[in-house]
Every structure is written in structure tokens, then in C-alpha cells.
Inverse folding.
């Protein structure tokens, strides 16, 4: 095996980045992933990506250790509204105790950071889509650990919030058009064993004029899995 083919450490994929916390205005160091170095191994049917050597999900929550503000990295720089800032300061920053984090994150550290981001999102009454994505990514981390019980619990919450987001928020939601959003909800219901709901959402995708041929083909594949599963349980 050549040196290039050997398993690389997580340090190879990471770098330190300075960002400004939008809440307390402190300059902080965060761990960021060099996306250009990632090598995709597979992608699950609910969009969970698996990469060689590293799980980038572990580093997707950025946290200000000065005030406790935590959020997914693509949303972290967004301005914090005054009402949100007051809620965070009262409920999080006033009680915050800085954490010591290692140079690379274990699954347990990643889970802790996601839970901090989830708590913060609930405190500031974030959109359902943001809560849904946090729960979905946390479910993916539990899946990578083969922790089925916690994966299912988080998927249930993700499904609930993503359904609410579909009702309340204008597309695109989390970068998804309405057809992709419907497919994801249907696939989560399928994985949870909610077959009637899965078929209903998949049916909406297949009827949607906005759904691409590729998405409809994928939806038909998942619909067939539901039909087979219902036959085996009947």
C-alpha cells in the first residue's frame, strides 16, 4: 500500500478558522473541514453521506465558548435578532461554563455539541426546518454508531419538524425544493416503519410536476420497498 493509499488522520481534513460570534462579537477559533479533500464512500437514501477516514458531521456545529452560542456552520454567521439575542443571553450565556474540546472530536463530543445547538435553537424559537435538520444530522451520527434506539428517536423528531416546515415555510427549505422536501419526509417515514405516511408522501412526489425524473425514479424505488415490506408483514 502506497503512502497516499494509507488511512489519513482527521488532522489531514481539518483546519482552524477564525470567525466572529454574531451574538457576543468575540473572535473564536473553529474546526472546519477541507471539503476538497473529502472522498465520498456512499450516500444513504435519506441523503446521509459517508466519507473515507472522517465524519464531517462531527464538525458541523460551531460553538462560541465565550457565550455558548451554537449553530450549524452554514447558519452560524447569520445575524442574531435582538429578541433571539435576549433569549440566548438569559437562558444560555448567563449560565455558560466554557468547555475544553480536544483537537479532533469523538462521537460523544459531536453529540454534545449538537445537543447544545438544539437547545439554543429551541430557546430562540428557531424555524422548524432548522430544528428538523439538527435532529436529522444527530440521527445520522447515531446511525454511524449503530445506536438504533437514539437514531429512531432523532428521526422521529426530524420527521415531525420537517413536516411542520413543509406546511409553514416557503420553498426552498434548507436548499430543498418542495419535491425533494416531500421525498425526504417520505423516506424518513419509510425508515421509521410508518408505511401509510411514506406512501402518501411518495405519491405526492410522483404527482409533482416540479420533481425531476431522477427524483421520481428514486421515489419509485423507495415506494417499491414499502410495498414489499407491507407484503411481508401482512
Amino acid at each position: 500500500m502506497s503512502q497516499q493509499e494509507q488511512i489519513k488522520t482527521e488532522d489531514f481534513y481539518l483546519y482552524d478558522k477564525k470567525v466572529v460570534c454574531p451574538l457576543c462579537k468575540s473572535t473564536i477559533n473553529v474546526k472546519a473541514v477541507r471539503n476538497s479533500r473529502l472522498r465520498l464512500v456512499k450516500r444513504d437514501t435519506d441523503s446521509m453521506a459517508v466519507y473515507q477516514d472522517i465524519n464531517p458531521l462531527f464538525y458541523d456545529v460551531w460553538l462560541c465558548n465565550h457565550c455558548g452560542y451554537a449553530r450549524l456552520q452554514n447558519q452560524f454567521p447569520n445575524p442574531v435578532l435582538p429578541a433571539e439575542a435576549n433569549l440566548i443571553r438569559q437562558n444560555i450565556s448567563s449560565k455558560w461554563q466554557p468547555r475544553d474540546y480536544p483537537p479532533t472530536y469523538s462521537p460523544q463530543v459531536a453529540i454534545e455539541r449538537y445537543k447544545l445547538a438544539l437547545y439554543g435553537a429551541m430557546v430562540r424559537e428557531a424555524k422548524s426546518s432548522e430544528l428538523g435538520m439538527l435532529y436529522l444530522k444527530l440521527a445520522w451520527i447515531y446511525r454511524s454508531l449503530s445506536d438504533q434506539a437514539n437514531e429512531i428517536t432523532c428521526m422521529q423528531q426530524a420527521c415531525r419538524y420537517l413536516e411542520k416546515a413543509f406546511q409553514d415555510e416557503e420553498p426552498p427549505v434548507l436548499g430543498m425544493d418542495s419535491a425533494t422536501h416531500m421525498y425526504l419526509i417520505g423516506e424518513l417515514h419509510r425508515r421509521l416503519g410508518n408505511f401509510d405516511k411514506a406512501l402518501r408522501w411518495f405519491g405526492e412526489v410522483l404527482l409533482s410536476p416540479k420533481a425531476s425524473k431522477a427524483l421520481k425514479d428514486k421515489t419509485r424505488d423507495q415506494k417499491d420497498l414499502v410495498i414489499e415490506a407491507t407484503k411481508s408483514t401482512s
About this structure: The mean pLDDT is 95. The chain has seven helices and six strands. The chain has two domains: 7-169, 171-234.
